Amino acid sequence: MKKTALNRVAALLLSAAALGFSQQVLAHAHLQTPVPGENATVDHSPQQLTLTFTEDVEPAFSGIELLNEQNQPVAVEKMQRNDKQHDQLIVPIGEPLPAGRYQVKWHVLSVDGHKTKGSYSFSVK
Ligand SMILES: [Cu+2]
């Protein structure tokens, strides 16, 4: 092989290593599966919000807020982390939600020490 070809191989290997590294760095906890789902319309009030993330989260530094159409916080029960699945947060809903559109705002600290946040909506018929 010529020297330039070798350099190219070395550069490829380096960029592959850099890619692997950046993917690790980017492995924050993103919201994977909310129930009720994003933009879902459910027939009845859900009994709980279940948010599953792509990574384990620290409940002490995480929070979930439920807002109604008037952007007012809805009283819900204390958020819990699933004992058997540390990437899942659960918010029990005490009083059934009246029909309407709701927004869920979340922020989490993943076990790798990174903070992420987001929001989504669902509707109750
Ligand atoms: Cu991260």
UniProtKB/TrEMBL annotation:
Look up the record and give one Gene Ontology term from the biological process aspect: copper ion transport
Q: What is the role of this chain?
A: Involved in copper resistance.
What is the top-level taxon of the source organism? Bacteria
Task: Tell me a Gene Ontology molecular-function term this record carries.
Answer: copper ion binding
**Species:** Pantoea wallisii
Predominant place of localization: periplasm
Give the matching SUPFAM superfamilies: E set domains
Protein name, please? Copper resistance protein C
Look up the signal peptide feature and give its range. 1-27
